[in-house]
Amino acid sequence: MSTEATRARMAFAARLLLFAATIFMIYEATITHPVEVSVNHGDKLLHALAFFALAFLSDFAFPARGHVTRDLFLLMLFGVFIEVVQSFLPWRSADFLDFLADCFGIAAYRFLMPIFHKIPLIRERWVE
Question: How far apart are CA 112 and CA 63, in angstroms?
Answer without folding.
Answer: 17
